[in-house]
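Q: I'm writing up a methods section and want to include an example of the input and output format. Could you take the sequence below and give the corresponding predicted structure tokens, formatted cleanly so I can copy it straight into the document?
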Amino acid sequence: MRYLVSKAMRVFVVILTLGCLLLSAVPAQANSALPPGQKGEKYVRWYYPSQLTYGSFEFGNGDRGMAPSPKAFLTLPFMGPHIVTSLFDHCYPDYSTNGKVCRYDGTEASVNLGGADPTFDAGYAQTPAGHDYLYYDGHDGYDYALTYEPVAAAAPGTVMLANWLDPSCHSCLSGLTVEINHGNGLLSFYGHLSQINVAKGQYVVRGQVIGVSGMSGTATGPHLHFGIYNLHRAQTPVDPYGWSGSYPDPYAWDQGDLWLTGSPRFADVTMPKVSVNAAANPDDLTAIDVSWSSPGTMNFTVYVVTQDGRRSTWTSSRGNGSATFHGRHGQAYWFWVGARSDLGWTDGAGSDVVGVPRLSRGALTN
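A: Here is the clean output for your methods example:
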């Protein structure tokens, strides 16, 4: 009997211990991960990862089949497919809620058509089943799900603003913001940035990295707010996707499809893609031959990493390069190469680990 009681107590203690561990464990879920200094909010669907499993993707394939307007001048302000988390409201982009959102192709959403977002009554579902809350009543631009990623100038122009939109309130409006005057009466707007890489008055070219996306200002999660505004009408917003609905555009200030070729595409710039090779030199057992390359002409920095994990800058080059590293007997090394384009795009890659044979009584051993 005493044995049974003792066994039962041991089982109870094991179960209790496991229960405490489960209760105290913090699940490492990607959608709850935040960079240092960022505070979580309730609209968690816009948090990590930026590539969510629902919503409308902007692939940059140029497959919309629409004719560009005479003023078309834009390419996408990012690289790679991203989800559109909110779009331009043609009925009406002034944030005075009217209970209905109209997409550029005439699709409508409202409390009655798609249903309201249960956590945000100005957001409506794009489907009757209540999924994909891509509609934000009164929104005057596009939100793209960029999670701390490079943001590109959508066209050449001069930077009008590169600062907090409201310097006295860092938690207000679009936070860290860049505005670019394109010289055609229109400006592009990039909001909620975490980092700005340009300065007021600077001339930028298409595809140049102007900052890094984030969630500064009034944001429910990391993303890019991208807008186009008419400088001649007190920065009246216009929809770069134009209007292709089967009924007249409810918004009177539409200026047509502003994407080059009529469909949104990525800027035609050479992106870095690093390749690294490291191999032992058969003629010198302390030597390691290292080479690095990327499409285009990049600025490379080459680091050597020792077997204790220490990294130090070894060499650099403008364009593809190679060099020979001399190591110590019995040590192992690998090499990390970072590349940066003249437009600010970056990439990096590492080599295989290469060991230098050790000396043993005057002879080399592996």
